[in-house]
Amino acid sequence: MIRMSKLTDYGILLMTQIARHPERPLHTARDLAVETQLPLPTVSKILKALANGGLLISHRGVKGGYSLARLPQQISVGQILAVLEGPVGVTQCGSTGDCEMQPHCPMSSNWLVISNALRQALENLTLPELAHPLDVVAKRNSMISAMDLISGRTQ
Questions:
Q1: What tens digit of pLDDT does each residue of 7-42 get?
Q2: Taking a C-beta distance cutoff of 8 angstroms, is the pair 146, 78 a contact?
Q3: Rounded distance between C-alpha atoms, residue 52 and residue 54, angstroms
Q4: b/e per residue, 6-29, with b = 16+ CB within 10 A?
Q5: Nearest to 127 by CA among 4, 33, 21
Q6: From start to end of 1-155, where are the E strands?
Q7: 78: which of 61, 85, 122, 136 fits an S-S bond (Cβ 3.0–4.6 Å)?
Q8: Strand, helix or coil at 138?
Q9: pLDDT of 143 above 80
């Protein structure tokens, strides 16, 4: 099973919450914790990691908080995952290329294709798309598009 950590899940939730409210120039960790019902220490830790990764800007001071470092449509799920989890891939050889078996493995090129398709799908999914719940038809079409991408079919 391919899994991301709970902190990464929360990080995507926090980034989506910020993108959902463009009218607010700054978002405090405390406000985001209340809005998402996540523990404040966890929210603070994730926001710092996202700021260190270049996805958020930290504004210090009494009226400080966090803002997106770029426009929401320029921030993808793939970028958030890369900041919080590291390189995205199905296997070690598909993500970092650090596998001693890779030169002899008949599967390595297949894993690379699958990992690249997964990375591409995550890069194509941006914050504005996450900020608004998908309807059933959009979800179905999204799944079909992802499956086409993985199988090598294009639209």
A1: 999 999 999 999 999 889 899 999 999 999 999 999
A2: no
A3: 5
A4: eebebbbbbbbbbbbeeeeeebbb
A5: 21
A6: 56-59, 65-68
A7: 122
A8: helix
A9: no
**CA-based angle 76:82:86, to the nearest 5?**
170
CA distance 88 to 105: 20
Q: What is the pLDDT of residue 89?
A: 77
Token representation of residue 73: 């449509």
Q: How far is it, in rounded angstroms, from Cα 133 to Cα 148?
A: 22
Report the top-level CATH class of 6-86: mainly alpha
- Tell me what pLDDT residue 40 has: 97
Please list, in sequence order, all residues whose beta carbon lies within 8 angstroms of the beta carbon of residue 58, skipping any fewer than 6 positions away: 47, 48, 51, 64, 66
Q: Show the tokens assigned to 71.
A: 């426009």
| pLDDT computed for residue 132 by the predictor | 76
For the record, the structure tokens of 130 come out as: 């996450």
> Which tokens sit at 36?
């998402």
pTM across the whole model: 0.79
In the numeric block, which tokens belong to residue 13? 């939730």
Q: What is the pLDDT of residues 46-96, one digit of tens each?
A: 999 999 999 999 999 888 999 999 999 999 999 999 999 988 877 766 555
